[in-house]
Design a protein that fits this description.
about 230 residues; mainly alpha
Length: about 230
């Protein structure tokens, strides 16, 4: 670690990753767009059928006097809901796999090449003054950069616990510990810039709005069933 550099905190790391993700997701979505339009229509129909079925089944069970503890069991055993859930799963897979495959390929090239380059990090990291180094503070080889990227899959497979490890000092995620790397921030990147903080706040707000929309759709389906 050189003078003026310190381990990058979790907020810096998340903001950098989310910037990279936004760019790559847009690129992947644009490449997969011809396949996404029919898949979205199929998913929307399956989603409406499932919510409508859940509302109707729930209303019927309640009107029949089914006890609350037995509601979940009856819903899970309803063949109409099982068919609707299967159609939703198939539609979701049809929608997600093309952009996901493209995203994974772009992400590998984006992160490995950026980390192994003189920038020592992806564009998102460099915008926030972060760089990836080995234990001695040196630039990563292509092999180690690729190993770090592959090891990041384990951080995802642990339901993001591997990423949350970076919350505590010395702020090294699971894949950094496996690959023998560190993420440092430049001396002038001590505070998270306000645009990056606003970007994180926007993501939180979008998540809350999405949750509210899903809840609204469920309440509407339930109201239609009782109506």
């Amino acid at each position: 670690m050189t003078a003026g550099q310190a381990p990058a905190g979790f907020r810096h790391r998340y903001a950098a990753w989310s910037l990279d993700f936004a760019v790559l997701a847009l690129a992947a979505g644009a490449c997969a767009w011809p396949r996404l339009q029919p898949a979205w229509s199929s998913l929307g129909a399956a989603f409406r059928a499932l919510w409508s079925g859940v509302g109707a089944a729930l209303a019927g069970a309640m009107m029949a006097g089914t006890r609350v503890p037995d509601l979940a069991r009856e819903l899970l055993q309803d063949p109409r809901l099982l068919d609707a859930a299967g159609a939703l799963q198939a539609g979701l897979w049809q929608l997600l796999w093309p952009p996901l495959a493209i995203y994974l390929a772009l992400s590998a090239a984006w992160h490995v090449s950026g980390t192994a380059s003189p920038m020592q990090g992806s564009p998102g990291k460099r915008v926030l003054g972060l760089r990836v180094v080995d234990r001695d503070g040196a630039r990563l080889s292509w092999a180690r950069a690729a190993a770090r990227h592959l090891a990041a899959g384990l951080s995802w497979l642990t339901l993001n616990i591997g990423h949350l490890v970076a919350l505590a000092a010395p702020h090294r995620a699971l894949h950094d510990r496996i690959a023998g790397t560190r993420v440092l921030r430049d001396a002038d990147a001590r505070r998270l810039p306000w645009p990056a903080a606003a970007w994180i706040a926007l993501q939180v707000a979008a998540g809350v709005l999405l949750l509210g929309w899903l809840l609204g759709r469920y309440v509407a389906a339930l109201g239609a069933a009782f109506g």
